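Need tokens for this chain, all 203 residues.
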Amino acid sequence: MLKIAVFVSGRGSNLKAIYEKVPKSKVEIAAIVSDKLDCPAVKFAEEKNIPVYFVSTKEKENFITYFNLIDELKRMNVGLIVLAGFLKKIPDEFVDAFENKIINIHPALLPSFGGKGMYGINVHQAVFNSSAKVSGATVHFVDKIYDNGKIIAQRAVDISDVKSPEEIAERVLKIEHELLPFVVEKFADNKVVIENNRVLVLE
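Here are the structure tokens for all 203 residues:
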């Protein structure tokens, strides 16, 4: 069974999608990690009796540092870290400790509309302003540069008739809720491999 840690900053809709759609026989959510004490995703974790850690780059009350979190997650045998709406950049030493074991979901088709500050409605506003006719979601490996790691899987959605960035957000979120659980389950099945500098998701 694959143990995962899910990092969240907001309402946790992608966390819930993983919890509901990925078979419990394959994946255990061993920990929820957040940078915010009061985000709604934490409430969901507490309802489901999933351990919660609050992480910070600095030492402060009720928070664990990334350095100590590395030890804690390794002690728990966490094999995959899933950033599901986590808004802070992961420190380099943490990325090194879990090389090719950290994935992120981004609400656009990378490499377009990525990078610093491109999260949430900011992304959808940029997509809307560009007059793009399709958008979608991307799951990618996390490296030391924002939204730069190798793309694992993408799914597109038609946005040619939308009237607002909010409409794009709504359509893309539905895609996210399908794509992220799909990829997590593929990791559990050892069906995500890197060959010739490309990531393959096997049948």
